[in-house]
Amino acid sequence: MADQSYTPFYNIYKQVAEENEVDLFFCVYMPVINHPCFDLAWKLGKPADGISTDISIISNAPYKSDPMFGCHANMENESFYDRFNCAIILPLKLFWSSIDLIRDINAKRANVSVDPHWDLRGRVSNLLMLSNTFFGFELSSSDSPLHQEIGPVLPDTFPGLTPVLDSFLANHPRTIYFALGTNAIIYSQNVIIILNAFIKLIEQNVIDGVIWSTVRTDISESLEYANSNVSISTILNNHHPNIHISKFSPQFAILSHKNTKLFLSHGGSGSIHESMYTGTPMLVLPIMGDQPRNAEMLESVCMTLKLSKNNLKVDDIVSKVERLLNEGIFKMNAERVQFLAKVNSKRKYRAADLMEIVLNTAKYEGIKDENGGFKIDNEKLLRDWITPDKRMGFIRGKYLDVYSVAVILLLALGGGFVYTLLTIVRYTYIISRNENRNDQKSLKPKKE
Hints:
By secondary structure, this protein is of the alpha/beta class.
């Protein structure tokens, strides 16, 4: 996908940039996928900023990882073997398996006169990278000033409830909202499992309502899979009195309603941000992308339980819904995270200010081109933001040379001390032994 999309995306971006005389590139950062955006900014000499829900891949914190690679989001409590595997072995494997991909992308770069670049992460090391997350949900780290947490980014206004949804929520005080976003797709058999779990929860009076935003779910395919199951067919035809189906729903308004007690979601960034902002506990069914990592992070703050797409069972869903609704710890932690989300949601204005700073810096650092515009070098533009250790190199930047000499001196001093001590002990022992021998000789009787 990255290889095939490179040239078309590059040409589209270039056309837009030229037609609109673009001053700043604001690129969504996805490893490998969106290289054309950053490459074009570099080629045209325009400043670029990146934004992502997760920049852990370019973070300096080795304890941050990704479940997509078979690791945990937080490696803090993992064994030495797992930490070594995730910090050393897997990155080497990833690089080795990506050599052909990087080579192919560099061939595409050559076709549009862009210099080759061998970092799989792209031309982002010296750019302002905005992370749409916040500490308290995200793992804290001491990172570069170039990396700024500015999330959760949420709009100021949201669509309100329709009369139908407003009436449904008013009459169902224990409602679950079920939505899997605009991209995630699950198998029809899993849809049937989830719906059977809803039926069981309603029959057991654990919940009394479900709002299901289908978006990408194929209802006709699910109907075929349901066969003669009358209850499931009733739901899919939207005739069940306790389950309301709509193609699109005003999600934030639903989550904000006091009668929405739980959110069953795929764990996409937009959904988890809205759930945290409204203080709604979640049951997460991660499917792809950043969703597995989001699910682990939500579990770590104890406002979520997680399902497995490969082992989805009715009883597992029922038991986890019961826990989320009955154990107060989940709601309490959801409210704790809600406060953090609301406070940090104001940082989107800081993000805009940071982008203005980049533009202003480019104005003074740039060189006028033949058209009267400015061209800059993104490798040097934000040099004041780059910590000195990056310019000093790995050994000097980590002060390994200084610490190595300190260790050698300590070993030398310690070795000298030990040697001296052993010499004194040996000398003392020899003197003592000689004195003992002399004493023994003096005590022997003289022969006549």
